[in-house]
Amino acid sequence: MEIIRSNFKINLPKVYQAIEEADFFAIDGEFSGISDGPSVTALTSGFDTPEERYQKLKKHSMDFLLFQFGLCAFKYDHANSKHVTKSFNFYVFPKPFSRSSPDVKFVCQSSSIDFLASQGFDFNKVFCSGIPYLNQEEERQLREQFDEKRSQANGAGALTKCPVTIPEDQKKFIDQVIEKIEGFLQREEKRTLELNPCTGFQRKLIYQTLSWKYPKGIHVETLETDKGKLVVGHNMLLDVMHTIHQFYCPLPVDLNEFKEMTTCVFPRLLDTKLMASTQPFKDIINNTSLAELEKRLKETPFDPPKVESAEGFPSYDTASEQLHEAGYDAYITGLCFISMANYLGSLLSPPKTCVSARSKLIEPFFNKLFLMRVMDIPYLNLEGPDLQPKRDHVLHVTFPKEWKTSDLYQLFSAFGNIQISWIDDTSAFVSLSQPEQVQIAVNTSKYAESYRIQTYAEYVGKKQESKQVKRKWTEDSWKEVDRKRPHVPGPCYHTNSFTAAGIVGKRTLSPDPREAGVVDRESEGISDPELEQTDYCADPLPEGRKKAKKLKRMKKEFSLAGSASDSPAVLFEVPDTW
Amino acid sequence: MEIIRSNFKINLPKVYQAIEEADFFAIDGEFSGISDGPSVTALTSGFDTPEERYQKLKKHSMDFLLFQFGLCAFKYDHANSKHVTKSFNFYVFPKPFSRSSPDVKFVCQSSSIDFLASQGFDFNKVFCSGIPYLNQEEERQLREQFDEKRSQANGAGALTKCPVTIPEDQKKFIDQVIEKIEGFLQREEKRTLELNPCTGFQRKLIYQTLSWKYPKGIHVETLETDKGKLVVGHNMLLDVMHTIHQFYCPLPVDLNEFKEMTTCVFPRLLDTKLMASTQPFKDIINNTSLAELEKRLKETPFDPPKVESAEGFPSYDTASEQLHEAGYDAYITGLCFISMANYLGSLLSPPKTCVSARSKLIEPFFNKLFLMRVMDIPYLNLEGPDLQPKRDHVLHVTFPKEWKTSDLYQLFSAFGNIQISWIDDTSAFVSLSQPEQVQIAVNTSKYAESYRIQTYAEYVGKKQESKQVKRKWTEDSWKEVDRKRPHVPGPCYHTNSFTAAGIVGKRTLSPDPREAGVVDRESEGISDPELEQTDYCADPLPEGRKKAKKLKRMKKEFSLAGSASDSPAVLFEVPDTW
Fold it and tell me: What residues does the R3H domain cover (chains A, B) (predicted)?
């Protein structure tokens, strides 16, 4: 279903309902470009750390516009053993609301625009009929301006908040809530009141109504009941970053803060590209691009799911590809997820034919986002510190800007097979086939004048020093500190031969730390307080407190979010809505 | 006529012919945005110098895309006393030619895109069917790459230039040229050879053919025979800047270099907004926006010209406005020019009913581009130094960033009427109604702590010092040094009361320096060698020589251009083509 400016309001209840009743949903975005700085190759260097990758994407990709947002909700019809889909294609454009509202500037990359044009993308629809939007801060400012003008027009000296405009179909619900709260306030013997679960939109109306009805203040908090529904995407890091940046708030400077923010906005994510690149799929899926993956998953040993679009929703035909329309891509992504999840079920004994989005089988893939072209870190871990591969076979080389790849091959010709990963004009990472060669190379280069070689560890050490970031790098092995939860047993997909991390060529990808030789820190009894210091509420510094406050406010305001309460007067339960 | 990627090649001869036979032509561009930095108000501060304005536009406007270029050629049909027009609408888009060719990034401003969308602008046509282009340097690089690949494919070690692909209809012409040159080279008694006039495209073919045929080199230069045909635009500074920047080469750092470059690319420009803002039009035209101007010029004392579109060209109907399509805007601009030129003719005795684009009557308007919202400098003078108004009633004020316009009004409340022109968050120009008040204001402020006031002259002096630019500022009166040519007598339009420069309110605009009290330096016998130092060929420094070389090459390469020759072996005469 196409959602544009003119039919947005009338269709919004359908969107809410689709999310409400869905088992899971898939998302996808179309952007006006990818990299506004270095070439995509330089943007995605093979030895980026997750932190570096995040910083690069933040710096060079956020000025593009997400102008089509695809959302496909999947609901399983048990009676008929089929999935029922509701697919939405939102055209979005930051049409200025008035002269005083933000006049957004966005970058277009010719190659991306040309590609979309060749796929028949309708730019006129985006620019003429795109749904306008504001992020939270912009909305707040606009409301303030509006309130001010209104109060000036009323001739009132003091600012009075305006009553909330409540849609007809919500009036009854809101009236009931108010009645409940007034009763609660009169009784006084009870310390808290829990309201019934409601949608994100209803919650917003409640907050606004209460803020207007009780100008002296009333403490209201959102109660978290569940992790939210599963949101599936394909190679979704940029989609997630853009969605938050464009519709919620500018991305935080720090990767850890980004992780916190993301798990607030999207409590449960699954990346089908990561899933397809991981055992047991890795060995039976050659090409993980969405189009190829979709084709592959129609063949044995996979079993394409029975899917049907809901009444009133146009159906997609996967035979005639409509790839790169966000709604269709989201739909395909959902199909891929179902096929792969069901395949995991088929490996059980007895086999399980239909694996749900809440199954333990897929838990190892939760909140891990695929990292494009990073040689030895398969994913960004949203729920804790990232994998730290030992890069003891990697050298950092600095050289004159005239050097080309061939010069590097010549320099290292004595060391057999090497892999080069350019950083910029005058430096690159060179990975040797054996770690023992590293010291030889460093020693040999000591008196060289035109170039300089250091070990990866030295390079990182100096970089950290210069940044004065107090973070320890362990050089023993891959380590993952999973602070938040004990290690989930889950299934281990050791069905095929395990490829060691150092071997050049095929990548080893696994969201299960054990598979990639990653040990769980907690289970070893090692504790690094600095690594564990990701909860800003525990940070004693004022800066930390500010962040904590910000994050708390965010948790309260964003519909998908939830937070524990201190001593709330009124509590709302949050259902699985968006 | 709509020119897109698919019909560009087949219609190119029509474009050449239209230009070839035209008396003059009008241009207009549509862009993806206006200001990528400060608000348009800050971009166009009321006391910008032409240098400052150029720098601002260069910095904040060149990242937008010119995606529709309008060209309307006007030819007078003497037999039927009417103008015959050929209007072209070029859709342009930097579609990447290959993976190694430039992947242009451009900025879009939501308000501009929204405005064009509301006018029915077809973005799909731009992005799907826009004519791709390269600037000169990009073309050179691509040719080099192509030559290199070709020579590698041929197995040749040395680079051999590829033969030029000459269109069928040009082969005879080129063969004749080659024959002539070979005869000349055999004779040897003559030192130069002048070829017949040719079009810009033919000249390009000749250069390419000779460069391939005589790999050892042959000295070829373009001989200037005429100033080129008149190109008319409305408020055309940005159009000119974008056209050069996008299709020719990045804009030079320095305003004087920009002027040199512009007069090479467009030897004769006329801005209808400047014309309409100047006497005798100023007093009878209230609104100089293109749409309003066009309406006004249909009424007395103006006489709308008889115009007809050429056969095979769709006609525009000015009654149903199609404003903001570049081809239509160019058409309207041409109409406005004709009406105003004819009005000038009607003031003569005996009256002249039809004033040509080569008439002396319009010479005072040549090569002067309207400067938007500058209070006391009506135009950018492309043919010499700019006007230097005395700003002895202007103060430069620095203050805390919390200050608002009202704070400034309060500060100067004792001085009567003032005008404020913001520079940035913490500074503004304040013009007082009388110059005598300036010193009082400066003295009063001497011990103030929160703000600082200096005279405009002090401000400029400090700015110049810090830039180490050796340019003298005269503070007596407006002065224009017209180095290149003796003062053209031309007509003086002193038909109405002359408004003095200092008076607040209505602007005095005139391209005739005498009208605005500007004196001609040469006629006064004053000579400032620094002001005259704009010919880089005379600059003894290496940097100057480099510039000279660059400009010379440019003159040689660009079709509209011309340059005097040193001692050319072969000379080409340049006709009025583009």
Answer: 171-237
